[in-house]
Amino acid sequence: MAGPRLAGRSPATSLASRKRAQVLEVCHRPEFASLPPSQIVPRLADKGEYVASESTFYRVLRAADEQHHRGRSRAPERRKPPTSHSAMKACEVWSWDITYLAGPVRGLFYYLYLILDIYSRKIVGWEVFDRESAEHADNGSPMKGATFRATLERLGIEPSHSRPRVSNDNPFSEAAFRTCKYRPDFPTQGFESLDAARQWVHGFVTWYTGEHRHSGIKFVTPEERHRGRDREVLAQREVVCAVARAKHPERWAGKTRNWQPAGIVWLNPENLPAQEEVAEA
Question: What is the arrangement of strands in the sheet containing 94-102, beginning at the earlier edge strand?
Fold first, then answer.
């Protein structure tokens, strides 16, 4: 006669069904429905709430067959850059570029000009025009026009250009444009008018600067980073994680998440030695 059957034991770090249901409930909330766990966990911590670690969120989503790309964007591409620049504080290096915004009819476009501080990712200037010129223009002949270059020299700005149609020298601006055009409320069928485009971009800039937790700066907002408040925010998150670990140490197999502030930000880091710390675009 066979001996008694021993029931299997779950790992100490596994979550109960109730906890998994809580993770899914959080992911299904309207404000989190299009966000990955890397964005959800910091936002919960900012509210003083800890549900589970980022890896647990991903594990639960995979088990529920919900670990798919959360949003409309595609995977980013990396390209080899020309020269390197670094920023140790706000207002040291700015990146700017132009992107097209579809108009009310096929073939009609508006031009979004955007200036970004690469240290904080804060949008420090923007405008939408109905034409492109040498006074405010993209790469190529307009951007290198005499009027534009003279303006930069008068302001003491050293320009840096990539090759035409290659976003080597402005990955930070390109990343912001990507975020812009994959917002859930972005008018994919085009803007009704120039005023409508400007109004929508104004709302986007307000959200991007003051609400968006940016992955390249440890998921703080660009405004917090620009004003030097990122250390305070990240320290508070570390406290939230420490308290959660103290309450349920059995759920932690290793250290808590690294909430140290992002360091020096490099533009075109591929040209630097491998040991240099680099913040993502």
Answer: 94-102, 109-117, 123-129
Give the chain's domain count: 2
> What's the pTM?
0.72
Cβ 265 vs Cβ 271: under 8 Å: no
CA 153 vs CA 83, 118, 157: distances in Å: 19, 21, 6
- C-alpha closest to that of 118 among 202, 201, 216, 211: 216
Measured at the CA of 55, the angle between CA 73 and CA 261, to 5 degrees, comes to 80
Domain match, 180 and 250 both = no
Host domain of residue 37: 17-71+228-261
* Tens of pLDDT, residue by residue, the chain (281 residues): 444 444 445 555 555 788 899 999 999 999 998 899 999 999 999 999 999 999 999 999 998 888 776 656 665 555 554 577 899 999 999 988 899 999 999 989 999 999 999 999 999 999 999 987 655 555 554 555 556 566 666 666 666 655 444 545 578 999 999 999 999 999 999 999 999 999 999 999 999 999 999 999 999 999 999 999 999 999 999 999 999 999 999 888 888 889 999 999 988 765 554 434 444 45
Q: How many Å apart are CA 207 and CA 202, to the nearest integer?
A: 9
Mark whether 125 and 176 lie in a shared domain: yes
User: What's 211's domain CATH number?
Assistant: 3.30.420.10
